[in-house]
Write a structure and sequence with these properties.
The complex is a heterodimer of chains A (238) and B (188).
Chain A: E1 8-13, H1 16-19, H2 22-33, E2 46-47, E3 61-66, E4 105-110, E5 122-124, H3 128-139, H4 141-148, H5 156-163, E6 173-174, E7 182-186, E8 191-193, E9 203-211, H6 219-223, H7 233-236
Antiparallel strand pairs in A: 1-3, 2-9, 3-9, 4-7, 4-9, 5-6, 5-8
Chain B: E1 7-10, H1 16-20, E2 30-33, E3 39-42, E4 45-49, E5 55-58, E6 63-66, E7 69-72, E8 74-77, E9 83-86, E10 95-98, E11 104-106, E12 110-114, H2 125-134, E13 136-139, H3 145-152, H4 155-163, H5 167-170, H6 174-182
Antiparallel strand pairs in B: 1-2, 2-3, 4-5, 4-12, 5-6, 6-7, 8-9, 9-10, 10-11, 11-12
The chains are: A alpha+beta (238), B alpha+beta (188).
Chain lengths: 238, 188
Amino acid sequence: MFLVGGTWAERHSWDPAVVGVARYVWPAVEAAVGCGVPSSPASLFFARSVTRSPGRPPRVAQIAVKGPGGAAPLAPGAVAEGAHIDGMHAADNNVAVGTLGTFTLLVGVALTDAFAPNRGNFGVIPGSHAALSRAVDRVGAERAIATLTDRDGGGPTERLDRLLPLAALAPHAQVVAARGAAVLAHYQTVHFSAPNVSEAEPRVMVYFRVTRPGARPTVAAGLSRSGLLAELPGLSKL
Amino acid sequence: MPQASLCFCILEDDGAAGEDDGCPRRFDMALLTNGLDDGALVPPGEYVKADGGVRFSVTRDATFVFRGEAQAIEARYDVRGRPCFEIYWQWGRPTFSLDADGALVEDGRHVFRRAGEPPARAATPEQLCHLRDAGYVVLHGCVPSAAVDAALHSGDVASTIRKAGADGACRAFDSFRSFVQRSNVCFS
């Protein structure tokens, strides 16, 4: 999904060695959702793609590999091809046409080094989560959701750009970090996989999509400015 | 409440067999499981009390070793539904629970961490502010190298690399080289 150049591949993994990296990130996740630090990840969180029941530890991870070569570097300030928010339908993901999925935090762990940009880095548009919520408030949630879930065949980047012109946002940032680094991102943060211009080094990431259990805001409410941090009281109280 | 019939099972051995063929496959994890759909990882190794005063080991064959004496681990769930196990030693029969950051906690009070492994770090207020304002934050050095290696050497990662068409690239991918060539994941 979301090909940018270089070959992208992903799969879900139940391998405990893969899923197990989550536990090192959990204290930070817990701090963000403002639930204190429970004794086990199992007590508060679950990975959406594993089970719909809260109270389970992550039992599945998404492995994402960006193969090397075949792409031009992404210039500073350029809009990244494939920029998106998760939960939008794409041709080769499991999100149903006409629906919009939401969760709380996207958590990524780098298994390989990315010491320079354009090495398949995880990329973001800083502040885009708030910009998206402002755009939703501006046009109204109903119309915003209709745009994001439009069945006209456009890709997620195209649909997102109709609601939130990506070129008008802050310049993109590519995460430059050694393996073992973790990234936490608001689910509404526009992100992408940077091209991998290296000659022979695949970039490997492991992702978890964390949903705060309990009563959740509606999709419309969650997308709005008032709902932006509704599931992240650890951030809203700062 | 989960059922109490639990056992330890070993997911992958990193002992002599792996060393014989030079293949660094090493999950280095034991799985505390009830055989159904629940479980928790317990990394084997030497654990050290926070003050450094007490050391014990959890081995890959699910035994607890303290001062040279080994005893089988009796795994179960505690009253809060967390995976745990009890042992007998000179201080009685405490319960050890696996904490969120991989530490073993004795009776909810004494924290034992794997030797040489730093505690997982919570995000700082500055990092949380960055997450709030920028929509993302990077936590450098969050996952220990051993855990990264264990994940990286999994068959799932290797097969995903192959799917990405990066087979040739694997050869230059040092941490993968031995593993993938011996696993016939990467073709030379």
